[in-house]
User: Which sequence fits this backbone?
């Protein structure tokens, strides 16, 4: 999956990551590997439609009896997210159906920014 990687993140993180890559001059390298983003809240809600409890990462982890001691640390949250997805038996293909391409994220940000500036007039 080296050339078809998707980041699993919160949707608001995607534009931040893309701007950071651009600011560091790493856009081409990033886009050579990452094709899009999957919002964990979106696909987890779809994968667990009968769940009434919180979808907060630590709550989900505790539900699946996963240790949460490294939560609330960036790398720890990534590892915890992966364990929740694995333990919940959520297939890669399911996550990809709920993912957004990099182009879709960029386009959404452009529309949002245009709308923001139009409102300021």
Assistant:
């Amino acid at each position: 999956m080296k050339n078809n990687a998707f980041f699993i993140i919160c949707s608001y993180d995607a534009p931040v990551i893309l701007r950071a890559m651009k600011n560091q001059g790493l856009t081409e390298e990033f886009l050579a590997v990452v094709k899009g983003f999957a919002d964990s809240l979106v696909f987890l809600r779809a994968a667990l439609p009968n769940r009434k409890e919180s979808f907060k990462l630590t709550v989900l982890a505790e539900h699946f009896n996963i240790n949460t001691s490294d939560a609330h640390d960036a790398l720890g949250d990534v590892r915890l997210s992966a364990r929740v997805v694995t333990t919940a038996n959520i297939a890669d293909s399911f996550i990809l159906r709920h993912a957004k391409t990099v182009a879709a994220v960029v386009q959404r940000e452009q529309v949002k920014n245009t709308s923001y500036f139009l409102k300021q007039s």
Notes: The longest helix spans residues 102-120. The beta strands are 5-9, 34-39, 99-101.
